[in-house]
Amino acid sequence: MIHAMTTHEIDAAKAQLALCIRMLEQQGTLDYNGHCSIRIADDRLLINEGTAQRSTITAQDICTIDLSGQVIEGRGKPPLEFHLHSGLYRARTDVGAIVHAHPRWSTYLTMTATPYLPVFAQGSLLYPVPVLDTPNSINTPDMADQLAQTLGDRPAVLMKSHGAAVVGNDIIAAFVLATYLEENAERQFMAQQLGAPYAFTTEEMAACRAKLFNPTLFQRTWDHFAAKVVA
After folding, report:
1. Which of 2, 147, 181, 194 is the most exposed place for a label (fewest CB within 10 A)?
2. How does pLDDT run across 104-125, given as a tens digit for each residue?
C-alpha cells in the first residue's frame, strides 16, 4: 500500500508534476499530447488536465482522479489515455509516478524495428526496453493491460510508432529515466550513421546500475534541467 498524501504534500506534488512536464516539453521529450502522473493513494493519482498547455502548465492545471478516470478535484478532465496510468498503477504497486511522452529519437527506433541498445552509461539503466507491438493509443482498459504486460518489471516500455512510458518510484526518477531513454536513443541513432555502435556488456551495465541508479544522482539531473526552465 502507498502512503496517502496530506493536503500539503498533494499541493507540493502538483507543483512538482507541473515542473516535470514543463521540463520535458522544453527539452523536446514531451509534446502537446504527453502526460505525467503521481500516485497519491492506492486508488488516486494526480495528472495533467488533457487540454492544459504543456509549455506553461502550472499546479492549477493538475487534476486528481481515481483509477476509473473520475475527476475528484480539478478544473478539467484528464487526458484520454488516463488508462495508461491507471493500468500501470494497478499492475505495479512499486510505481509512484509515470511519464508518457512521444520522444522523437526513441520513436524512430520503433518505426524501423531497431532494438534499443545500451550505448552510454545512463542509457544502460533502462536496458532492455520492451516494445508494445501496436501504435494504438492506450485509451481502454484492454490496451492498458497489454501495455502493463509488455512493460513487466522494467522501468520503461516503447510503443511502436507512438511513444514511451517510463515509471519510477517517484516523479524525479520517472523524469530522469525518461530523459536518459531519449538521450540514449539519440546517441544510438547518430552513431548508426557512422557504423555499428558499441553496446555495453552485461558486466558494464551492472557497474553502471550500481553507480548511477541512485536518488542523489537523479536529483542532480532533475536540478540540472529545473535550472533551465523558463517560469
Report:
1. 194
2. 999 999 999 999 999 999 999 9
Q: How many other C-beta atoms can be found within 10 angstroms of the C-beta atom of residue 5?
A: 17
Q: Are 179 and 221 in contact (CB under 8 A)?
A: yes
> Which CATH number describes the domain made up of 7-226?
3.40.225.10
Peptide bond into 128 cis (omega under 30): yes
Cα–Cα distance list, 43 to 39, 65, 96, 102, 192 (Å): 8, 9, 12, 26, 44
Residue 219 DSSP label: H
DSSP characters for 62-91? Answer: EEEEETT--EEESSSPPPTTHHHHHHHHHH
Q: pTM for this one?
A: 0.96
Backbone angles phi and psi of 99, in degrees to 5:
-115, 125
Q: Domain map of the chain by residue range?
A: 7-226
In angstroms, what CA-CA distances link 88 with 1, 9, 32, 85, 93? 15, 22, 22, 5, 9
- Dihedrals phi, psi of 170, to nearest 5 degrees: -150, 175
